[in-house]
């Protein structure tokens, strides 16, 4: 698998005096499959049967740009 491409990163306050760091990355898994990875550090997370990724508007724009330019997905819209 290729090295992930960074789409965005930020910090946010989760409590009094406690900040979490978040990074969003994308990696091409197959010709028709990409994987979006969200890493959050600074909080304890519970593991469940489902997962989700929070994506900002600018990160989505970056994801579309990477999919087109880096992965050759020219048939997707903006």
TrEMBL record:
It comes from the Archaea. This is Uncharacterized protein. It comes from Thermococcus siculi.
